[in-house]
Amino acid sequence: QVQLVESGGGLVQAGGSLRLSCAASGRTFSRFAMGWFRQAPGKEREFVVGSRWSGGTTSFADYADFVKGRFTISRDNAKNTVYLQMNNLKPEDTAVYYCAGMVDFGSGYRSPRSYDYWGQGTQVTVSS
37-95 pLDDT, tens per residue? Predict the structure, then answer.
């Protein structure tokens, strides 16, 4: 089994930055593809970024259009942690953010149903 625990959420003003962390324990984390999703009240969970790594470096990363140029995913295998650096935050980024792990990376990485493990979520609130 794999456990994912997010942290780093909070309240920030528009234009500010936050870095979310997703700490993993359990199975061989370094082989997983990882993603971040978010869910605002009354809305479906939506894709933010999906990524996989090879040899400790990012071999693939795909971002949703609404975060391109503002958000960056990274990973520290030594710490079993994935990060989401969020810059130039906007009020519409307000949501609960979830990290997710995928054992077998595939073309469905934009769908929540493709992921095998989920964290409990961390709230991000951006004030205008």
Answer: 999 999 999 999 999 887 667 778 999 999 999 999 998 888 989 999 999 999 999 99
State the Cα–Cα distance between residues 112 and 122, nearest whole angstrom.
17
Give the residue carrying structure tokens 């990485």.
109
Count of beta carbons in the 10 Å neighbourhood of residue 50: 25
Percent of the chain with pLDDT over 70: 96
C-alpha triplet 43, 48, 50: angle, nearest 5°? 135
Q: Which of 85, 41, 42, 78 is nearest to 63 (CA)?
A: 85
Q: Where are the beta strands (DSSP E) in 55-102?
A: 57-63, 71-76, 81-86, 95-102
Closest listed residue to residue 35, CA positions, set 127, 115, 122: 115
Strand partners of residue 51: 34, 61
